[in-house]
Amino acid sequence: MNGCKSMQAKFTEYLDGRLNGREMQRIGAHLDQCRECGYEWTSLKQTQALLSALGPVPEPENLLLGIRVAVSQEQARQRQGLFHGWNLAWKNTVGPFLLQASAGFASSVLLIGAVVLA
Predict the structure, then answer these.
(1) Per-residue pLDDT tens for 54-83?
(2) What does the buried/exposed string (b/e) look like for 6-39 if buried means 16 or more CB atoms within 10 Å of the residue's CB?
């Protein structure tokens, strides 16, 4: 069974003819002898035939533009560096907490000041 897994891992290369002659002969001999791998191989060939019957899929109109935008956004993100990441994390996590804490502190100071002066 372990040999079957290694054979099945090479089925797509075998199907595409990307293996050397010796490997192709070895897989072909295995397929002649192993019923389970034969079923798997037949299923793979049928899947390929069904997919090729669908024909080519037209590319979206703005595919090239979308790729260019995604690449430029990734390049801009990488140029921002570590400081930008820390700054963004600070603004999203600690910043709102500090605003609430400082408002509470200011309210406490005003309340205590009003009580002391009264």
Answers:
(1) 888 888 889 988 899 888 888 777 776 667
(2) ebbebbeebeeeeeeeeeeeebeebbeebeebee
